[in-house]
Write a structure and sequence with these properties.
Layout lengths: L1 E6 L6 H10 L4 E3 H11 L1 H11 L12 H8 L3 H25 L5 E5 L3 H4 L7 E6 L2 H12 L3 H10 L3 H7 L2 E4 L6 H15 L2
Parallel strand pairs: 1-3, 1-4, 2-3, 4-5
Helix pairs in contact: 2-5, 3-5
Length: 197
């Protein structure tokens, strides 16, 4: 089974592209979503985050205090590294179990915004980068997350530049209306099916 990764900057359209692959019967592991789930269900992560960030990192109902956590890690690179050092190994373990469940598929897709930053790309056979023009991404994120342009730019600034993600990719999907996404996905899907034989 081929292990394929999908990445791209925030607001590039990774989720939309994954949904198309999903309709082709390809299992998708949404690493960022799973990480969020593990942060409220995995006792080891919960304990570690409380030790690093204090009790306020969780609400009394057990939910993660996202605004509090974000305010801490976006201001301090060292805290962000500590957060990643707690969450990433748990996601890797979770992914390994997930791969076991999908051995019968020609390939699977692992979706994450921070593929290169987290080192998860090293475990993958092929990488797809979804690219969208910066202004398009900014307007999408403002609409989706209801945040200011400045906040969007601050988030984008924390991610690896698009050029590097494109350079490191085996395939690039251009989400800029130059060519329909479905056609681009089908082309890559067919190539991956051949590679997985």
């Amino acid at each position: 089974m081929l292990k394929v990764g999908i990445t791209g900057g925030i607001g590039s359209g990774k989720t939309t592209v994954c949904k198309i692959f999903s309709t082709l019967g390809i299992p998708i592991y949404y690493a960022d979503e799973r990480a969020k789930e593990l942060m409220v269900t995995n006792p080891t992560i919960i304990q570690s985050l409380k030790e690093i960030f204090g009790e306020d990192v969780y609400f009394e109902n057990g939910k993660l205090n996202r605004p509090y956590l974000a305010s801490k890690v976006f201001q301090d690179k060292q805290l962000l590294q500590q957060l990643n050092a707690v969450v990433h190994p748990a996601v890797f373990d979770d992914t390994a179990k997930w791969y076991q469940q999908h051995q019968d598929k020609p390939y699977t897709i692992y979706e994450t915004a921070i593929m290169f930053e987290s080192g998860s790309y090293k475990l993958l056979d092929k990488i797809i980068t979804v690219f969208a023009p910066i202004e398009e991404r900014i307007s999408r994120i403002i609409k989706r997350d209801n945040i200011s342009r400045e906040e969007v730019l601050a988030r984008i600034d924390k991610q690896l530049p698009e050029e590097i993600k494109i350079e490191k990719a085996d395939f690039v999907i251009h989400n800029d209306l130059s060519e329909p996404l479905i056609i681009q996905v089908l082309e890559i899907h067919n190539k991956l099916l051949i590679l997985s034989e």
